[in-house]
Amino acid sequence: MRWQNRKESTNVEDRRGVTPKVLAGGGIGTIIVVLVIYLLGGDPSQIIDNTAVDNTATTTPYVGTAEENELAQFVSVVLAETENVWAEIFRQGGSNYEYPVLVLYSGAVQSACGYSGAATGPFYCPGDYKLYIDLSFYNELKEQFKAPGDFAMAYVIAHEVGHHVQTLLGTMEKVNSLRSQMSEEEFNQYQVRLELQADFYAGVWAHYVERLSLLEEGDLDEALNAASAVGDDRIQRSTQGYVVPESFTHGTSEQRKNWFYKGFRTGDMNQGDTFNAEVL
Question: Residue 12: pLDDT above 50?
Fold first, then answer.
């Protein structure tokens, strides 16, 4: 992605080096260690430990490596590009786009959705309109998921911003309201559709980035590879050796890749109604 010398977002909160104090629950060892299935999660309140946390935090001077600092700059530019695209799309639809905040943290973080460790992976919290990411995830993406490239990381950011768009449109609240009305297996089907729509929105964003001539050769393949790498079937097969379709919460590798690509190809939000799609 041609991101150097592009404007960075002013909506980035750097909490690297800040460690929340746990009041109860035993600290890091009691964090709900989330399976990789939830790495690009929708509603973190269901997967993050709500252990009580002191609002005062231990702060130590944080010095990032040159590579990490460059990555922090990159994700800030990506966030700015999402702001530009979604502000225009919302404007065309007759409404205003409320910008989310991207929180950079290291190790653990406190959000309106609870206390989370880096094992949770990147997530969006609808309770405070913030995206949270430990930049060490970039290495995980490259090494564990075999999804290298800067646009693979851009896809991750764009997916979480997709959840923010769903929150602004009321989709997130509607889906979460169904949780208590059905079995876990039934609700998982709605969760999958929620996640696939966030993938579609990430693709819509990529569509407009491509029109700005910011994509380089291979960028689209990097994003498609990343979407495929975090499919439920692929993750379950690699972690437990078999798949359990009724437990899927994000969709298969093929579904995630296809919905991202549909968003990229069309650039039309109206074609992303995953909830009424007969075939995912």
Answer: yes
